[in-house]
Write a structure and sequence with these properties.
homodimer, mainly beta, Methanol Dehydrogenase, Chain A, six-stranded mixed beta sheet, 35% strand, binds pyrroloquinoline quinone
């Protein structure tokens, strides 16, 4: 059981000589929000409590800013001192705002546009936010170019090609700065892109290392002798990736890396997940398709892999394993164990020993999960229900969850006071008809017709308070559409999240009671953050519907199975909200704030 | 002097059998906002006072709605009972929102798109709002088609072609329903469109009458024998239009009708102004170019012209005369006279007897006006400074105001309690170089290179409290950019307006003190309205920068003289705001509202 007392903010536990000392220091200052995930441990938790469960009902919109875009806004601002920075969906405008003058734009940077990028972005032209390090702002552009900008001026310090849209490669994730490296992923799993994660030197822009998800050891940076397979507790052995694929299929094997990253400075490991194996048609790729659908622990300086754990071997549902890893310590067999908690697309929550990848607790966090009956305690692999296994030429019905998973990229928040996870979720099922498809660089490599439907009960979204050690849901809120925006918790005992309809909510973390809600201009798929400026606590969130959840609206698609099977599901979303793009910043009226 | 006691809300003074009785009744209900201008007399004044100068500092954003567009939002919602309706810039989305469920879209109507329209819209693809009548919503689409929609369902009842984008014709104005007619104008003065105003039967969609701004009597509906020229007090006589043009030039003579309309039910007259004469190059069109730049009084049932008054004969500056006519009664020579007040682009404010068009008081409302030294009391025509007269081949410098006028389409508000006008204004000068140009249908017929600069003092916008009888400015606020959004006054002693930077302001009508301001997502060029719902007063305004003031941003133009000379002027506007589109609705916190 996760005991609050037993939990230590990893980043505060120790520092390592190799880590970026200044970010490690900076993340302790609750007035700032120094990285996309708030802190390296991915808690999205703030110790600020000026806004709290007692007064949050008085929350107001403090100021707003149009982003100048109308596609899905999936990121969040970062706040460093007086400055706020955020990035929009394509064309990836980057804004700097001086919080003393939020009626002005301190600078704006627009990367050169590569019109080849939007057509190969699978799930709207989203971006998950910029990162900060050493006076620079690091931004991914959709066309897979990485930019280092001078934080003061917005001028380009360096840029690096991290991929090529012509080959189906894009970048949507948020970079993470660790030590002297900025670490970025790649997207394009629906185009047969072989995933990799890359570290660039923050000062020179030179590539330091790149680790692929599939291929020989020199590509994956897996050491057959020392890299542990978390499922077995043993070294992965030779050819651990290639031998799980038919022929050369691994070369277009997917396993992209477009999710969130986390970092443990003490163990000096970064954590992230890899996505679906190339082509959604499993018949075309016999084998376990390693290391797609895998949790990775790598050394941030060398890329060397400490351990891997594949959650969904031989995926047949597009259950990308990229969702974030939240670093907490848990009590396990009487000991405090450094763990990571991960809500996978496949509907299972994983508590893993983050030192060696061994499973601690795995539970279904949505009871409707039916593709697997559970986890085999011997193999630590899922026990797949053969009736729900997909194959070429077969239309498999009522698989739960859908390809969007019970949770997709929308990040959870961990509150150390309650020891619970606050998770915005999907609640969907699907039919899935696989078919053979030929790879051609830059062309869709999907091979499945999917149709998503609401899960049992008819609602499509949930916001839950959850204990991943026990699998117990303490309370839940049902929402009409997927809750595709992230969560934030604070010392004020409030959890914040936004709905696809555009309601921005403050919820009592103890009871799940909605204490405040506000109708923002568009639907919310962004992640709330909080910061303090001039003695006042603010909560900021981007409002701009889109992402895969609202791909029908974003891409103006109407065929039910379009948008990788997601369009029919949310056809009525247009009855509730519009495309848009606004940064919304909330605070208490001055009297209430100072009475605190 | 305008005495508050002497002022009567015209529409309440009497009703005429021919008028739409229900709108005349409805406009008395301050809970609603039944037509674009609030009331037929164009006051944009509300008797609501729950929000007032004492408590407005507590104003909050109540809810918001993305419009799904990012071009200039120049209109305002109308409110009929529980329903709100508004229209966006092109593609002219029309939204209905049930105020009991502002988190839903009751219906949305999108007219078919004619891609020929946007390129021929002179000044951004704006729209000034829908009108209501007899269970229908009337909307102009940019492509010059007029739609009658079922207010309950949004279904098209009828539609009518009011012009053709291929000929340079567009529609941007707000319709006005009078009696059984819906009255609409036409735009395209920069394409040599000969202006007209048209009445359609609200039930059948059939044209009832059309009155041109130039041409023979059968076109203009001017009766040479009975139509009065307000300047002379005498009938206009034969060929009053054609004889003021060289040859056939009147056929491409401009005088479009894209502004606001007003209506006096007692006199049974509608009032509006006509725009600039065709080609901005005056050398090409010797003569007074009648009836461009003219105030018109027409019978709403027949279109017959009661009187005309030309403000800027032989225009050489693009001082379109389309700005709104505000109907008030004034004390003049001891008598109460039915008057109209008009702030013209040319920098003069006009108080006219609205029965017969005779001038009562004409003053410069911006002291920087220099194209004319005053009004000749004998001819009632401006005394033009020859040094500021433009002509082909000459670059005339430092003309004030600029082509955007000291006020453009942004409507003023009249407060009967103070007897003053609250006017959002421009404060600009320009250089103007005319040249010969050939007419070709659907192609620009401009013939001038203009460059606008800030007026004396360096600021570009003003918000003033003004007495048009005396020409006295009671107070003024200087703004960095043009104040291109309209004004609203209320019985709560507050004037509301928005700035191009996007600040939405509540101002003390007595002192001009800014009591409240809020940074909306984008710049404001829309017009605030107020209404009461469920016992709570709301103020609503559209935030979405654009229009001619921000044409550089809207059209992504960068050459200084582009956008008809407006681009260079506001090149730094991008340092303050972004394109966007949001309906912003404000109210007091429940406690403050009920303590009222
Ligand atoms: O395989 C990939 O490379 C890839 C990329 C992305 C992306 O970059 O946004 C998504 C996915 N897959 C994906 O499977 C998915 O569910 C998804 C949702 C979203 C979103 O932004 O809403 N992106 C992506
Ligand atoms: O001559 C015309 O037909 C015509 C049309 C319009 C329009 O339709 O918006 C404008 C003007 N002229 C014009 O002169 C002008 O200053 C102007 C400003 C705006 C605006 O929306 O900001 N429109 C127009």
């Amino acid at each position: 059981i996760l005991g609050a007392g037993a939990l230590v903010l990893s980043a505060q536990a120790a520092t390592s000589g190799s880590a970026n000392e200044s970010l490690l220091q900076m993340q302790k200052n609750p007035n700032d929000w120094v990285m996309p995930t708030g802190t390296y441990n991915n808690w999205r938790y703030s110790t600020l409590d000026q806004i709290n469960s007692k007064n949050v009902k008085n929350l107001q919109v403090a100021w707003t800013m149009s982003t100048g875009t109308d596609r899905g806004l999936e990121g969040q601002p970062i706040v460093i001192g007086d400055m706020m920075y955020y990035e929009t969906s394509y064309p990836n405008y980057v804004y700097a705002v001086n919080l003393n003058h939020p009626d002005q734009i301190a600078w704006k940077y627009t990367p050169p546009r590569d019109s080849n990028a939007p057509p190969v972005a699978c799930c709207d032209v989203v971006n998950r936010g910029p990162a900060y390090g050493d006076g620079m702002i690091f931004v991914d552009a959709l066309d897979a170019r990485l930019y280092a900008l001078n934080a003061k001026t917005g001028k380009v310090v360096w840029s690096a090609d991290n991929g090529h849209p012509k080959d189906g490669q894009t970048m949507t994730g948020a970079p993470m700065v660790v030590g002297n490296n900025v670490i970025v992923g790649i997207a394009g799993g629906e185009y047969g892109v072989r995933g990799y994660i890359t570290a660039y030197n923050i000062h020179t822009g030179k590539m330091v290392w790149r680790g692929y998800s599939e291929g020989p050891s020199k590509d994956t940076l897996i050491d057959p002798a020392t890299t542990i397979n978390g499922a077995t507790g043993k070294p992965v052995g030779p050819h651990s990736s290639i031998k799980t694929w038919k022929g050369d299929e691994w070369k277009v094997g997917g396993g992209t890396t477009w999710g969130w990253y986390s970092y443990d400075p003490k163990l000096n490991l970064i954590y992230y997940g890899s996505g679906n194996p190339g082509t959604w048609n499993p018949s075309q790729r016999p084998g376990k398709n390693r290391w797609s659908m895998t949790i990775w622990a790598r050394n941030p300086e060398t890329g060397k892999v400490k351990w891997v754990y594949q959650m969904t071997p031989h995926d047949g549902w597009d259950y990308d394993g990229v969702n974030e890893m939240v670093l907490v310590n848990v009590k396990y067999h009487g000991k405090e164990v450094p763990a990571l908690v991960h809500f996978d697309r496949n509907g299972f929550s994983y508590v893993m020993n983050r030192e060696n990848g061994s499973p601690i607790a795995i539970h279904k966090y949505d009871p409707s999960v039916n593709w697997a009956t559970g986890i085999n305690p011997k193999t630590n692999e899922p026990i797949v229900d053969p009736a729900k296994m997909t194959e070429a030429g077969k239309d498999v019905k009522d698989i739960c969850p859908s390809s969007q998973g019970d949770k997709d990229e929308q990040p959870v928040s961990y509150d150390p006071k309650t020891g619970l996870f606050y998770a915005p979720l999907n609640h969907l099922c699907m039919s899935y008809q696989a078919f053979n498809v030929k790879y051609k660089a830059g062309f869709p490599f999907v091979g499945a017709i999917v149709n998503m439907i609401p899960g049992p009960g008819g609602y499509r979204g949930r916001f839950i308070a959850y204990n991943p050690m026990t699998g117990k849901t303490e309370w839940q809120i049902h929402d009409m559409f997927q809750d595709w925006g992230g969560a934030l918790t604070t010392a004020g005992n409030v959890a914040f999240y936004g709905t696809l309809k555009g309601m921005f909510r403050a919820v009592d973390i103890k009871t799940g009671k909605i204490l405040y809600q506000f109708k923002t201009p568009s639907g919310i798929i962004g992640n709330p953050i909080t910061y303090m400026h001039d003695g006042k606590q603010y909560v900021a969130v981007l409002s701009g519907v889109g992402g895969w959840a609202a791909i029908g609206m974003a891409d103006n698609l109407h065929k039910s199975s379009a948008g990788l099977g997601a369009v029919g599901l949310n056809a009525t979303l247009t009855d509730y909200t519009n495309l848009g793009g606004t940064l919304m910043v909330f605070s208490l009226p001055s009297k209430v704030a100072s009475a605190n």
